[in-house]
Amino acid sequence: MKSVQLVRLLTFFALALIVYGAVQSVQYASSTNHEETPNSSDGLVGADEVASNEETSDEETADEESAKNAEEDAYAPQPLGPDANEADFDPVPNQGRTSLYAGATFLSTLLIGSLFSESIHILLLMAFVTPLLARRHSTNDMTKGRILGFIEANAGIHFSALRDALDLANGVTAHHLQSLESSEKIISWRDGKLRRYASKGTPEDNILKLKTTVVGTRLAVLEVLSNAGSLGLSNKEITSHLGISRQLLHHHITELKRSEYIFPITSRKRSPWAISTLGSKALASSKTSAMSN
Prior knowledge:
Helix 1 (about 1-35) packs across helix 5 and helix 5 (about 120-135) packs across helix 8. The protein has helices at about 1-35, 40-50, 60-75, 95-115, 120-135, 140-155, 160-165, 170-180, 205-210, 215-230, 235-240, 245-260, 275-290, and strands at about 155-160, 185-190, 195-200, 260-265, 275. Among the domains are: about 115-210, Arc Repressor Mutant, subunit A (Orthogonal Bundle); about 215-290, Winged helix-like DNA-binding domain superfamily/Winged helix DNA-binding domain (Arc Repressor Mutant, subunit A, Orthogonal Bundle). The chain is mainly α and about 290 residues long. The protein is flat and about 100 Å long.
């Protein structure tokens, strides 16, 4: 799968950025510490000179201090002019910091996304866990057969439900699903944050019904809008009917609009929503499926 290969490539690139950034940061810190560390031999020479010149006059001492102050002033940072660039006064810029932050940000985003999206979670499992399990030939055809049989008997089941029903680990489930889909024994499709599966031999009419079947809160939204007719309902009115939060309704409204099951009546920002012809068909199909079950 191209998406799996892309995730692997981007992850390895992010790790390379992190390693490069860490190495550059260590080298930068080492060079800075080396420049600030005084030379021990200079200290010994200075001690010998102090021992041998105990009777140096106050005038000579003042001259030495004056010369030392002049040398320190020469190396002191100068104020930046209006056209000066602050980076020009940094002799050893830490170029690895940006690479380190970029790699860490990408990996963090990927991991956080996997916590909230089953599709991303499965993608990561297929990218990194299944190659390891593919080498273990002992955990094999029996588990794969159980998964295939369960999918044939429960078309449209999603990943988490399949995993829990067969009491399997995430990695094992993802590995066998990828193997079955690669061998064209099953098919899958995305349903919001879920990924659903069906056997390859499932009739196309049944697959279409599975893909258009609306359940749960989205089904309730369609029913409320269907009863409202052409006048439609606003978000506030829908939340009042269903007793759900605005955030939850916004999520379901977005998905229903993406599926073209509903549409805004006007072009205003907070326009009322009405059910579309496609939404009415999906609602009828969902009710028929519920009655047959």
